[in-house]
């Protein structure tokens, strides 16, 4: 095995193992885990499909060797891998692993989820959005472009106008490139209603909030939405780190509260993580899943804990890459190993500089607090770069200079 391949495997195998543990804990279905990483990170294949392709015994043996060397619990082969091997489900070559195969293609089996919901989805005719930042503006555009009248709330008239101007600019760019007719662009803009008072949300069927990631501010918003929104309106949050159950507890209708985590930029990224807390109604989940599909998004479901699917799988891998660099591997060597051997669209350091090192540090600290694995401690170099203001492309320098 080449040094380059060994380096790539050392970074990717713990991530594959973590995905197997999500499946084993029934935190999310195999399809939702794999779709999360494909559509949330642009990976060519999801982690469980990759384990099947490599062979479960190969992955187990490599992890076991790393565990013997490091003692890191994230390297101990997950029981799901051992169990499937014992059942003869050793991967794609055997015709069955995490998935079932015929002629090398995945076929339906007893674990394949049904497309039909289990509750009665509520009709959604109008959408409300709270926020005026990049994420909120992207979501407003997505809903309006897919035929929904959108009432959006910003803190000042200047911010209301800025949202409309940004969406108009995006649509004009699409018209100039021949991707959109001017009449369609005008119709999308005609579905936007901006306001500075939350009371304007009184009659919408669903509100999705994308305001600051601070629990006090969001708690106050949910108490307000509970007072303002009509009975039966769905109250959704795009939080990527805060407890959805805590937000639901601010309302007298916790069954109507759900997570709806879009990815940036919302008009481009296909993935939405749909998160249920213990009292979310099944009809509310089905409503949000239907809404995602009607806006041409790929929804994946999971439960309410820090990181959800994508961040919980992605950021420990990025942190491991930084540690490998601290131990002497060159940035370019690591990035090339990952793109060459696993076909990822970019290596970990290119990705960190796009995401922002401050964002990466914040997410890694949340994951450490949630899972309490010592090996999730953010790499010292990451803290150093953030402390020096080297946050990535947005500041002109991160792991590399731009």
Beta content comes to 5-15%
Can you tell me the residue ranges where pLDDT is under 50 for at least 5 consecutive residues? none
Structural class by sheet pairing and helices: alpha/beta
Read across the widest sheet, the strand sequence of neighbours is: 5-4-3-6-7-8-9-10
Distance between the termini: 34 Å
Q: How many helical stretches?
A: 16
Shape: globular
**What oligomeric state do the depicted chains represent?**
single chain
Cα radius of gyration in angstroms: 22 Å
Average pLDDT level: 95
| Helix coverage percent | 40-55%
For the largest beta-sheet, the strand count, sense and barrel status come to: 8 strands, mixed
Number of DSSP E strands: 10
Order of helices and strands: HHHHHEEEHEHHEEHEHEEHEHHHHH
Concise account of the structure shown:
With 402 residues, the protein is α/β, with parallel strands linked by helices.
What's the topology here?
Elements: H1 3-24, H2 30-41, H3 47-54, H4 56-70, H5 79-86, E1 100-102, E2 105-107, E3 127-130, H6 134-145, E4 150-153, H7 157-176, H8 182-190, E5 192-195, E6 206-209, H9 215-228, E7 234-237, H10 244-248, E8 257-262, E9 271-276, H11 282-294, E10 298-303, H12 310-326, H13 331-342, H14 348-355, H15 357-371, H16 380-387
Parallel strand pairs: 3-4, 3-6, 4-5, 6-7, 7-8, 9-10
Antiparallel strand pairs: 1-2, 8-9
Helix pairs in contact: 1-3, 1-4, 1-12, 1-13, 3-4, 6-7, 12-15, 15-16
Fold and architecture overview:
The structure is a single chain. The chain is an alpha/beta fold and 402 residues long. The chain has helices at residues 3-24, 30-41, 47-54, 56-70, 79-86, 134-145, 157-176, 182-190, 215-228, 244-248, 282-294, 310-326, 331-342, 348-355, 357-371, 380-387; strands at residues 100-102, 105-107, 127-130, 150-153, 192-195, 206-209, 234-237, 257-262, 271-276, 298-303. The strands form 2 sheets. An 8-stranded mixed β-sheet has the order 5-4-3-6-7-8-9-10, sandwiched between helices. A two-stranded antiparallel sheet has the order 1-2. The two termini are 34 Å apart. The model has no long low-confidence stretch (mean pLDDT 95).
